[in-house]
Amino acid sequence: MGAWQAVEFSVQLELRKVVFKRDAVKVVQTIINKELQRGRYSHVVQDIKQSLKGIQAWRIVHTPRETNEVAHWQAKLSLVVEQRYNWIEDYPHCIHDYVFAKQVSV
């Protein structure tokens, strides 16, 4: 569902060039695959592919979870937050602290 939300959000913002990064290899492969998908989430995959037609240039790449710990931390946070948040120019202070702590430890 995260991939679907990312694509829909990009379409709503009328973004023309987008790189989607996902840590689930299967999700990336399924979206890239041009064959008709069958299965439990095939309707979601088809919706994603249809929505991607509204973006001029896009690509989706696999990024190991370990290389983007902040995104992983945000995903875990989303499990306990009831409201949906979209940060574009600003970001939650707790993420700033997390990123700064990772930079200091390097």
TrEMBL record:
Source species, domain of life: Eukaryota
Domain RNase H type-1: from-to ranges: 4-76
InterPro entries: RNase_H-like, RNase_H-like_dom_plant, RNaseH_domain, RNaseH_sf
Molecular function terms, GO-annotated: nucleic acid binding; RNA-DNA hybrid ribonuclease activity
PANTHER family reported in the protein's UniProt record: OS05G0353850 PROTEIN, POLYNUCLEOTIDYL TRANSFERASE, RIBONUCLEASE H-LIKE SUPERFAMILY PROTEIN
Protein name stated in the entry: RNase H type-1 domain-containing protein
